[in-house]
Amino acid sequence: MNSLILSTATRILMPAILILSVFVLLRGHNEPGGGFVGGLLAATAFALKEKAEGLAAARRALRFQPMSVAAFGLGCALVAGIWGGLLYGHFLQGVWPFLTTGPDGAKGGLPLGSIFLFDLGVYLVVFGTLCGILFALEEAVASDADTGGD
Amino acid sequence: MLLFWPVAIPFMTAVLTMLAWRSLRLQRAISVTGGVLLLASAIAIMAAVAENGPVAAQAGGWPAPFGITMVADWLSAVMVLITGIMAVATLVYGLADVTAAEERQGHHPLTHGMLAGICGAFLTGDIFNMYVWFEVMLMSSFVLLALGGEKKQMMGALQYVALNLISSIVFLSALGLLYGLVGSLNMADVAVRLPQAQNDGLVAAICSLLALAFGIKAAVFPVYVWLPSSYHTPPTIVSALFAGLLTKVGVYALIRSQVLFFDVSTPWMRLILLAVGILTMVFGVMGAVAQGGFRRVLSFHIVSQIGYMILGLAWMTPMALAATVFYVLHHILVKTNLFFIAGIARRHCHTEELSRMGGLYARYPGLALLFLIPAMSLAGLPPLSGFWAKLFILKAGVDLESWWPVVAALVVGFFTLFSMLKLWNEAFWKSPPEELPDKPDPAIGRQRWRVIPVVMLAGGTVAFGVFAGPVLDFSLEAAKELLNPQIYVDAVLGDRS
Amino acid sequence: MEILLALLIGILTAAGAYLIMSGRTLPYLFGLIMISNAANLVIFTAGRLTFGRPPLVPPGEDSVSGVANALPQALILTAIVIGFGLLVFALALAFRSYYVLRTIEMDDMRAAEPVEGGK
Q1: Residues contacting residue B331 through CB under 8 Å, at least 6 positions apart
Q2: Are residues C88 and A150, on separate chains, in Cβ contact within 8 Å?
């Protein structure tokens, strides 16, 4: 598809959607949002890129194989699970390395830990898998068009 | 944490093999290492269960029934153990058998994804979680089955997908009703609450829906057709793994759900199971006798053997359940091995059609001997494992004076022997047809990696027969535990029950 | 409301079963989609229906009562995601098999079966 309007708009929209997806991922910690939705949004950004500038450009923009991204995400989620398991004996138990409890019992520090790592894993799995499916389908359609649909 | 390793290790292996997609050598190394680690974790679980009785673990530390529970009692532990053994055997065999093209398409990650699903289904203590593991397993197996995209494979995969998707949906509907009735999906909690539910009609509906869903997975009559249409189509290693483990997950789920949830309330279900068991045996063996392809014969025998296991479940005495457990273990060992040998024979003869095979005994007497061990064990000749497995099933039946199934089992045993002799005669004994080339398939690869697992499993079959006594004692222990759900409930819920 | 949903589940299942028995791959999959939606509705209905009360704790309160049950919704979400994945794969498979065989009639798809009368 060669549309000047679409490709110009994509240049602005893609970073905006990607930033929004990260925002949704981070917001998901305590409020509606999270890795799943964030991953979907990020995949949308690449779908837009693919529609506007073609498959090759989208692949170049992603840099990694989509399935490698998904595998890395699955790895993140697993590490998050095993981390809590090794530390406290319960698989998937939350670990908060930056959280501190003051002498008066007040909670402080940075609420960042294995839960976020798990969410990041979900984000990457959803994002990678969807991009993988999208690219594969687009490739199949393209190769069908080349061979006259047979 | 111990109970999560059999799931975490295959997943981690899948991730690493996916990340190492550039180097096939690295992928193979990771893959086999993952299999060995899986076996090690299974042994550790077995040891823990032997020491302390059933153990439970809660994901995230949330107490049951609120969190997701993993439970290992004798049955789960031994199923995971045999999965580990089969994983190692198959992965080693795969070193010689998997082509580089299949590896590039993701053979290793998919295999380990499937192993994770199988182990998860065996260990989980939450029935919705079991659904999820089933789907993990199915998803990987779909893709493994269709990988390569041969015409034949695609047709097989379509049939497999079509029926297994229905099974998933039936399972899901049953879960919906179950949750509506008792308000819990933790299996131990359900076992406590279901007998108090004052709604026999709904309980019966849930019971039959679950039996149908697991029956499709286990390939029982009349919903077995997907199995013989698909298991002979993929590469040897894939069909060997499927043949050994996938249907047994269905059998395991059937045993677990029937015994834990419905053991007293539904005598009619046992009658149905009895009829299903007999018909599965008979139809499976009849199909096998009529077939002309090596792996197709073996596929029909899977169906037929599932019938014996269902018989044991239908009788539901300690002896019968022990015989079923014994039978499952024996069958996984033997059937995987037979598929391995079918793969080797196919490489030598360039075909799987029995009419165009032959002369393997003259050229490879060692291979012929290795075939005879699992084949005669499957047919039930003493002193191999299959003889004891069948004997225990028959003994359970005779104790109950349940004569029809006993007669059927004997007749089916005879036909199994007949069909194994047919395989022997056609592929190994008769002189080869003239067009058969002397040289084996050039794609045969490193033969020793194929032979090692075959010898290992054949040795296992013999040992299983020789040490049938201790294994039976163990199976009886597992059966006693199954028949007393309170043990399971106590392990999961602790004081709260 | 329950009766309405029960009727809907029945209609979806009936229509799905009808399509499944058509003997063609594509209608078969459409039938499966309908029945799987019916199964999701079963879970939803079995988890008790509430009207207009989302499962959220209002600010300043410690507990809630009488709101919608969140668990069936979580179960359905899981089932939808899984079912979506499986159906995408099944559709891709049906699509490929159409390209290879040029038919969606299941009776014509006998490549995995032995040839009648031997070969």
Answers
A1: B248, B305, B309, B378, B389
A2: no
Distance CA B429, CA B432 (A): 9
Q: Which chains touch C (3 or more CB pairs under 8 A)?
A: A, B
- Position C9 in a domain: yes
| Helix (H) or strand (E) run with residue B71 in it | strand B69-72
Per-residue pLDDT of chain A (150 residues; tens, 9 = 90+): 578 899 899 999 999 999 999 999 999 888 888 889 999 999 999 999 998 888 888 899 888 889 899 999 999 999 999 998 888 888 888 888 888 777 777 777 777 888 899 999 999 999 999 999 888 888 877 776 655 443
Distance from CA of B22 to the nearest CA of A (A): 11
DSSP run (H or E) holding B346: helix B318-349
- With respect to residue C61, please indicate whether it lies within any of the assigned structural domains: no
Burial pattern C86-100, b for ≥16 Cβ within 10 A else e, equals bbebbeebbebbeee
C20 chain-B contacts, CB cut-off 8 A: 166
Residue B175 contacts C where some CB pair is shorter than 8 Å: yes
| In contact, B235 and B98? CB cutoff 8 Å | yes
d(CA B436, CA C80): 52
Q: Domain for residue C78, yes or no?
A: yes
Task: Please answer whether residues A128 and A69 qualify as being in contact, where contact means their C-beta atoms are separated by less than 8 angstroms.
Answer: yes
Q: Cβ A90–B12 below 8 Å, yes or no? A: no
For residue B139, the chain C residue with the least C-alpha distance is C86
Q: How many domains does chain C have?
A: 1
**Which range marks the domain in which residue A64 is found?**
4-146
d(CA A143, CA B12): 34
pLDDT tens digits along B60-71: 888 878 888 999
User: What pLDDT is stored for residue B356 in this prediction?
Assistant: 81
- Judged by a CB distance cut-off of 8 A, whether residue B152 touches chain C is yes
Q: Show me where the domains of chain B are located.
A: 2-496
Residues in chain B within 8 Å Cβ distance of A85: 1, 4, 8
Q: Compute the nearest-CA separation of C99 from chain A (Å).
A: 7
The closest of B316, B334, B333 to B260, measured between CA atoms, is B316
Distance from CA of A71 to the nearest CA of B (A): 5
Question: In angstroms, what separates the C-alpha of C79 from chain A's closest C-alpha?
Answer: 15
Taking residues B311-338, report their average pLDDT. 92
Kindly report, residue by residue over B232-255, the tens digit of the pLDDT.
888 888 999 999 899 999 999 999
Reported as a single tens digit per residue, the pLDDT across B41-52 is 999 999 999 998
Q: What CA–CA distance (Å, rounded) separates B407 from B278?
A: 10
Query: Count of CB contacts below 8 A, B vs C?
Result: 115
What phi, psi does B437 have (nearest 5°)?
A: -70, 155
User: Alpha-carbon torsion B152, B157, B159, B160, what sign?
Assistant: positive
Which pTM was predicted? 0.92
Task: Return the pLDDT at B495.
Answer: 59
Q: Which chain A residues are within 8 Å of C88, Cβ to Cβ?
A: 133
Domain that holds residue C19: 2-50+70-106
Q: Which residues of A touch B14 (CB under 8 A)?
A: 71, 74
Q: Is position C111 within any domain?
A: no
Q: Which pLDDT band holds residue B437 (cuts at 50, 70, 90)? A: low
Distance from CA of B315 to the nearest CA of C (A): 32
Beta bridge partner(s), residue B58: B69
Residue B436: is its pLDDT beyond 80?
Answer: no
Q: Provide ipTM, 2 decimals.
A: 0.90
Residues 43-62 of B with CB under 8 A from A: 57-61
- Which of chain A's residues have a Cβ under 8 Å away from the Cβ of B12? 75, 78
Q: For chain B, say whether A85 makes contact (Cβ under 8 Å).
A: yes
At C92, which CATH number?
A: 1.10.287.3510
